[in-house]
Structures are given as structure tokens and as C-alpha cells.
Fold Acyltransferase.
Amino acid sequence: MVEMKKRDWGIDVIKSFAIISVILLHCLTIAQRSNLVAPYHILHAVPLFMMVSGYSFARRYSSSQSLLADTLGSKQYVFKRINRIIWAYIVVFVLEMLVLTIRDGRLPQASLYLLLSGGIGPGSYYIPLLFEMIILLPMVLLLMRKQPVGGIIIITVMSFLIEWFRDVTQMPNEDYRFSLIRFVLPIELGMLYGIRQIRLTKGWVLLGILSACYILGVEYLGLESLAQPDWRSQNTLSFFYPFVWSIFIMSSNIKVNAGWLQRLLVLVSSATYHIYLVQMVYFAFGFNKLNQLLGNLVLTMTLFSVLSCVSFGILFYLLEEKIRFDVRNLLGKCKHV
């Protein structure tokens, strides 16, 4: 884990905000989200995760002399990234299948499809996207290193064309939600910041304002969008809005001095993937029953959901880290026998 003084607290803040936003989104109805102006904050959770992924990848590999050889051409790169995703997901998937088998008296017939599509629960599409990122991130960074500004323009135009193609061909929602291509622009914007450490100029602010106006139009004024309705305010025209306040947060040199807050931020930020997996299971099997039991108390259920998912997600993360540590020690001892 990165030393406390050297941590990028802006990234920790964004990741923590994004994962809590995911939980809040799944607690609220569409009407409640609209009343809370969610299209201007928590609805951008996944684009924020994509920006952070692009930023982190660029910070690590932007100086690589042979980018593709060091990533896609490296067994260590591919294995390490799959290894960080697969085991926690398998544990959660087995748990989901076990619950379904007990509930329905048989294993779901589409279990193989469910395995490949991220399992059950809200946000399950994000798991396949993580595997797609293993391949796509090096290719996007290669473009960004050669043509940073041109790359943004190319990807923006390409994203428009993809949304247009989806609208014209009536692409099935399942195919659309599993496509990482629709999130390439926020990934690329994160990479741009990682490479150039850009500042919040008037140009970026203007793009952010235009995106905010677009969100207002499609969410509150009845403006039609080419994007699939569920993501009408999370597409090419809106991504500059969360990017602007991401620049503000990351360039603010945030310092966290309180020891307990440092530890909490580090834990939540480090455990975002595990918290995400936990909330999938929670909202698939537990939320509705608990909500009915407690009498639809929105505030109570929201607080309980956030605390439960974050707490169990952190415990899940710490448990996996402990198992990984023990396995490495055991393998190390075996080599010296």
C-alpha cells in the first residue's frame, strides 16, 4: 500500500465518492434520484471509475518505451490483472448460485451466461468491462501518447458514431451495456490528466458547462438523446461535466491529516471493487426484503445499505489480502525446501 504522505488523496476521494454513489443509486427510485438532482452527482459513478482507471494506468505506463510489449505482450501484466479481478468475483458468483439454488431448488440453466456476464445484481455489467479494460487500456494509451488532443477528438467522434449506430440499429440493451467502447472517452480523459496534469482552464470549464446543459435538457426538459435511455446523461456529451470537477479535486492537493480519516479513506478506496461485488449480492437478494420489513423507510434503508455494503466490502477485501499474503509466504517457503 502506498505510503500515507505519498498518496494521491484526490483519487482516494473520487473512488470513495463513486462507490458510495453506486450504493445510493441502487437504494433510490428513479423519481427520488431526479428529486435529489442525481444526474449532477451520483449518477456519474461509473464514468468516474473509468476516469480513475485511465489516470492510474497512464501514470504507471506513460513512460514505458515499449508499451504493448510491457502490457499485452507480457504474461505478467495479463495474469496480474486477471488475478486481481477473478478470485473475488468467483467467490461472489458461487455465493449467488448457491442462494439461487436454495431458493429455486435447482441451479439456474443460464449459469454459464451469468458467469460470463458478471453474475446477478445491479451493476453486474461492470465486471465484464474490467476484463475488457485489460486489452483496451494499452491501446487507448498508445493513441494518447502519440496524439493527446487528436485522440480526444477521434474518440469523441467515434463515441457519437457508436451512439448513432446503436440508435439506428436498435442495438439490444444487453449488448450496449457490456460494451466498454461507450466509456472510452472518460478513460481517455483520465489518461490525459495522468499524462499532462492539465489545469482547470476556461476551455475545460466551458465544456463542463455545456455538458451540464445537456444533462439538464435530457433529464429535466424532455430533450431526446441518442443514448440508451438508462444512460442518457452518462454518455459522450455529458462526460466533460464529471471530468471538470475531477480536475478540480485532483489538482487541489487535498491533504488528509486526521489519522482515522486517512485509514478510512485508504480502506474504502482500496476496497472499492470488493464493495461493488458485495452491493451486487445485497441488492439482488436482501435489499427489497429488508425494505419491506422496515416499512420503506428511505433514510434508514439508505444509511443501513451504505454502512453494510462498505463494511462487508472492506472485510472481504482484507480477507482476500490476508489469503494472498499467506499463499505467497507458503509458496516462498516451498521454493526454499
The mean pLDDT is 88. Residues 3 and 266 are 10 Å apart (CA to CA). The chain has one domain: 9-334.
